[in-house]
Amino acid sequence: MEHDDPAEALTELRERRLGALELLQAAAGSGLAAYAVWALLLQPGFRRVPLRLQVPYVGASARQVEHVLSLLRGRPGKMVDLGSGDGRIVLAAHRCGLRPAVGYELNPWLVGLARLHAWRAGCAGSVCYLREDLWKVSLRDCRNVSVFLAPSVLPLLEDKLLAELPAGARVVSGRFPLPTWQPVAVIGEGLDRVWAYDVDMDVHHARPAATSCPILPTPGPGSALAPSLPSSQAG
Length: 235
Ligand SMILES: C[S@@+](CC[C@H](N)C(=O)[O-])C[C@H]1O[C@@H](n2cnc3c(N)ncnc32)[C@H](O)[C@@H]1O
Description:
The protein is α/β, with parallel strands linked by helices. 34% of the residues lie in helices and 15% in strands.
């Protein structure tokens, strides 16, 4: 646009500059806000965890939780969720009768949120959320383990599970399968898919069961109960 009046042109130029400056400020502001969220809410607890083992929080979908429970329901013994996030899997496990149900989570904000959810559900004294590094807790007394972690850490997790879990324990892995174990059951589709693994009865040769793997149908909408496993595979 051409201006006869130099003062008008100057004003427009200033306004344009201001626009660019504002854009820059907005971008810097959003960057700072994102950094603050990361540093204050997501990063706490991870400072001492090597970068390659850091797994960000993503909550399991409702369908995923349903599938985890359908693969654990009715099993005796302690249940743990390794990296329990906001506690949804532990709370659901407790509600369907798994006792004790324990969540290990590094992020203190998420531990607090999980406890709040449990309190609101009237289960404050019954479920347990601990601020612990999942790589450091002992799994020797765990019969039922739930994980929803990044694929990059799963090879290392396999070693830990194999070294510590008692014979007859079951591991369920949400969204990503354990890389080398053979599942005894798979349920769900896409992002909601969950794999189940049983640790062999002979713990000294502890390998997850290498039996055939049925792909179980996804339960219908609203169904809390998934098809139960054949007794030979029910752990
Ligand atoms: C993908 S989220 C899954 C959350 C929850 N299990 C669910 O299914 O909704 C993974 C969680 O693991 C936690 N986490 C990652 N590394 C951990 C560690 N070393 N010890 C304990 N928790 C960890 C993260 O903070 C995050 O909440």
